[in-house]
Amino acid sequence: QEKLDLRQQLNEAKQQLLQQAEYCTEMGAAVCTLLWGVSSNEEAVKSILGGSKAVKFFTITAQTMESFVKSLSEDMKQQDLDSEENQFVLALAGIVTNVAALACGREFLVSSSRELLDTMMHLLGDMKPGLCNKFKVLMLMSLYNVSINMKGLKYISESPGFIPLLWWLLNDPDTEVCLHTLRLLQSVLLEPEVLARSGTEVRETLPLQRIIALSHSRHAELQALAKELLEDLKIFDYEA
Asked: Name one GO cellular component term (predicted).
């Protein structure tokens, strides 16, 4: 009887933990969705970054993003875009994108939240092509925004495996993912100091045929950007 009572208590505790987790996820999704909207206001962002919990918030953001990606099933074919978990992580990524869109936000992220930048680059390389496209796009937008800051550009471009990551993302079937990957690539390679440091690796590993294929995409913006990048770097001088 004692064992039965203990098992009953254990089951009840498990149920309570599950309910608490669901509540926290719902609350997190709701609050962060509201904060995503608020973070489009510059004064609101300055107020957030000036608070004592800003660094902790972005540390938790990195951890939450990582946990979300780890929870994805290996054979996942279709993502539940309406799930609370998905809305939660998208809102977090959206907040980071909005913060990075401002000069003060970029400076804060590259100075105080490099763990978050590292996590985003790591996760972009971990997710399968065609999966979590909106999440990928938001992270790519964040990295592009950070790259506008010279310190941010240097940090991102010097991260191990960064160039291979871009080539990996260019093979994603989603046009928006490819578009924002090209924007980040252009931002990085048009800076002379970065190009001087990474130019050899780029030339030796450049997926020329893929970029040429994107320059013929039916997606007008993607096509234009791919052509612009090819012209900027004079890639047609290289042999396929």
From this structure: cytosol
DSSP string, 117-161: HHHHHHHHHHSPTTSSHHHHHHHHHHHHHHHTSHHHHHHHHTSTT
Per-residue pLDDT tens digits of the chain, which is 240 residues long: 677 777 877 887 788 888 787 878 888 889 989 999 999 999 999 999 998 999 999 999 999 999 999 888 655 544 556 688 889 999 999 999 999 999 999 999 999 999 999 999 999 999 988 889 999 999 999 999 999 999 999 999 999 899 999 999 999 999 999 999 999 999 888 888 887 787 788 888 889 899 999 999 999 999 999 999 988 877 545 443
Domain regions of the chain by residue span: 1-68+82-239
Supply 198's token pair. 């990474």
Q: Which helix (DSSP H) or strand (DSSP E) does residue 64 occupy?
A: helix 54-71
Q: Is 167 in contact with 123 (CB distance < 8 Å)?
A: no
Residue 93 neighbours by CB under 8 Å, 6+ apart: 65, 135, 138, 139, 142
Helix axes 84-100, 42-49, angle to 10 degrees: 100
Give the residue among 199, 99, 178 at the shortest CA–CA distance from 142: 99
- Cα–Cα distance, 222 to 110 (Å, whole number): 28
